[in-house]
Amino acid sequence: MTKKHTTRTLTVLVMMAAAGSALAAKHSFPQLGALGPVPVPDDNKITPAKVALGKLLYFDPRLGGDMSTSCADCHSPSMGWQDNQPLCRGYPGTEHWRNCQTIVNSAYYTQLFWAGSVTSLEKQAPSAARGAVAGNGERDMMEERLAQVPLYLEMFEEAFGTPRPLLRDAWRAIATFERTLVQRDTPFDLYMLGDKKALSKAQKRGKKLFEGKAGCIQCHNGAFFTDEKYYNLGVPTAPEFKESVLHQITFRFEQYAKGVTEDIYRKTKTDLGLYYRKKGKEDMGKFRTPTLRYLTFTAPYMHNGTFFELSEVIDFYNEGGGEDRIQKNFGHSTKTKLLKPLGLTDGEKEDLVTFLESLTGEEILMDAPELPKDAVLN
């Protein structure tokens, strides 16, 4: 390489670095910070009785169709409180079409599921338990099962003051238990609270890249590391989605159930994300920004579990994202313009991964409780 070319290359790199460092200054992104107390709704305060009941119900397959799956089967404590598969397991006879998200810190979301279809944990629990490709439970059957358990009669009365278990209270109890699954003592949190030794030099460099040159803060901002907005990144299709016949059958069912046009039903082989809720062509292929907390234990990543390593995720963003299949299939682009090649060096990518790892603390583990027994009751 000539001296002229070397000088030009150095100039370009300096300009890119300067542009990155000025990113946060030019835009009013919510600043990164330590995670605050868990939000609790006024109509479902946390009590020990609710937490104890909710923990049992979380692990209890009575809240489902054929009693083969509980919340913990798809959101297992030993698997990051999700299931560590690209696409979540589904109800027997189906396979789910999206990646399971962790329950840890889920209480901070104001929009749950990848397309934000519910706005609280109280609404998330029944949506999962009754969803056709998830729990597939029937209201009356699930409630009657609970009513045939003497211990549940006692626990529901203590927690909610009702003589008989009500399904609406079961969801409230599960939501209360899930609000205890919070991690606020990560190295990053300790650093932001004043312990300047909590992050290594590499992690501090990674934080600077995160807020600057890498541009991660554009979407992953605030104390929860998400703006909860929706983007099409051009994420590649997971191989499991393309290769599994059962996934394809489930996907066709979801297309029909969500009310797409016949043309879209016949044409698309791509999960259209937010479009299923809003039905606007500008929403095709968009998914809600996930939090980056606890991500060390929650691989694989993205809405379809395409990437198994954080380094793969960084490479994807460094290249400017992926192909816009919405443009390819429908003739209009919805891919976000925020993505562009970043020019990160190998060392910078390593620093960025190291910083992301600081957003996870000790693994949150829990043994499954012994479930109460049924009895024949009048």
Q: If you had to describe this structure to a student in words, what would you say it looks like?
A:
With 378 residues, the protein is mainly α. The protein has two domains: 32-36 and 184-357, Cytochrome c-like domain (Cytochrome Bc1 Complex, Chain D, domain 2, Orthogonal Bundle); 48-178, Cytochrome Bc1 Complex, Chain D, domain 2, CATH 1.10.760. The chain contains 17 helices and two strands. Strands 1-2 form a two-stranded antiparallel sheet. The termini are far apart.
Secondary-structure blueprint of this entry?
Elements: H1 3-21, H2 23-26, H3 48-59, H4 71-74, H5 121-130, H6 139-147, H7 150-160, H8 167-178, H9 187-192, H10 201-211, E1 230-231, H11 239-243, H12 245-257, H13 262-267, H14 275-278, E2 287-288, H15 310-318, H16 325-330, H17 346-357
Helix pairs in contact: 3-7, 3-8, 5-8, 10-17, 15-17
Radius of gyration: 23 Å
Largest sheet: 2 strands, antiparallel
CATH architecture of the largest domain: Orthogonal Bundle
Are there runs of 5+ residues with pLDDT below 50, and where? Answer: 1-22
Which percent band covers the strand fraction?
A: under 5%
- Domains, number: 2
SSE succession = HHHHHHHHHHEHHHHEHHH
Q: Mean pLDDT score, rounded?
A: 92
Within the largest sheet, what's the order of strands? Answer: 1-2
How would you name the CATH homologous superfamily of the largest domain? Answer: Cytochrome c-like domain
CATH class of the largest domain: Mainly Alpha
Count of distinct strands = 2
Number of helices: 17
Shape: globular
Percent range for helical residues?
Answer: 40-55%
- Class by alpha and beta content: mainly alpha
How far is the first residue's CA from the last residue's CA?
88 Å
CATH fold-level topology of the largest domain: Cytochrome Bc1 Complex, Chain D, domain 2
